Amino acid sequence: MKNYDNVIIFDHPLIRHKIAILRDARTSMKEFRELVEEITTLMTYESFKDVPTTEIEVTTPLETCTQTVVKDNSVVIVPILRAGLGMVNGVHVLFPSAKVGHIGMCRNEETLLPDTYYCKLPSGIEDKFVIIVDPMLATGGSACDAIDLIKAKGCKKIKFMAIIGAPEGVSKVAEAHPDVDIYVSTLDRCLNEYGYILPGLGDAGDRLFGTK
Ligand code: PRP
Ligand code: URA
């Protein structure tokens, strides 16, 4: 895949370690869910170096000093249902007061095109830092449509975070939305004929919620 200024691939050994367990078909639903959350928190930590901050006065036992803190309510989390739900708590660990919008999308198994069946976003989202989360970025169709939806609400500061990306999908999103930062923990080899990421981890929604 060619290099894109707006694509950040982590390839951190600690994240790679967790992804190895996540991929394993023997990993239980509980462990899978916990790993998705942990990986998301590690990714969030790295992705928000540009989080809006403000200065406050803090009085220590010795003196008063000026300190930098994260601006309250500056971040909105938007999971793509279903699988994106598994990442919400992982972001909430670092942004406990973040509001959550939901976009429901399901890929048509034949055309691989996403169908949007639900969208509920917090009011005032246009002024927030929006982080869209979905563990899998495969063809990129769901990510592109979700970003289009958020942009249509007037949002300008958007990040997209996926645990595993396929080169085809990452390129598609990066080119369609050069103004959106795309964070991927690891870039896999390719898609198979059914649009599944190889080696991947299978169907993220089914593994998170035990539906297979
Ligand atoms: C999966 C995944 C993404 C989408 C990625 O969801 O969670 O949303 O596929 O594929 P794409 O990049 O080719 O669009 P799915 O449609 O299987 O729904 P689910 O989360 O309800 O299982
Ligand atoms: N959605 C998934 O859950 N897994 C894939 O490999 C591709 C899309």
Structure description:
The chain is an alpha/beta fold and 212 residues long. It has one domain (7-47, 73-209): Rossmann fold, CATH 3.40.50.2020. Helices cover 31% and strands 31% of the residues. It has helices at 13-23, 29-47, 85-92, 141-152, 167-176, 204-209, and strands at 7-9, 53-59, 64-70, 75-81, 99-100, 102-107, 114-120, 129-133, 136-137, 157-165, 181-187, 190-191, 197-198. The strands form three sheets. Strands 1, 4, 5, 6, 7, 8, 9, 10 and 11 form a nine-stranded mixed β-sheet that branches. It has a two-stranded antiparallel ribbon with strand order 2-3. Strands 12-13 form a two-stranded antiparallel ribbon. The mean pLDDT is 96. Bound molecules: 1-O-pyrophosphono-5-O-phosphono-alpha-D-ribofuranose and uracil. The site of 1-O-pyrophosphono-5-O-phosphono-alpha-D-ribofuranose (PRP) has 24 residues, from strand 4, strand 6, strand 9, helix 4 and helix 6.
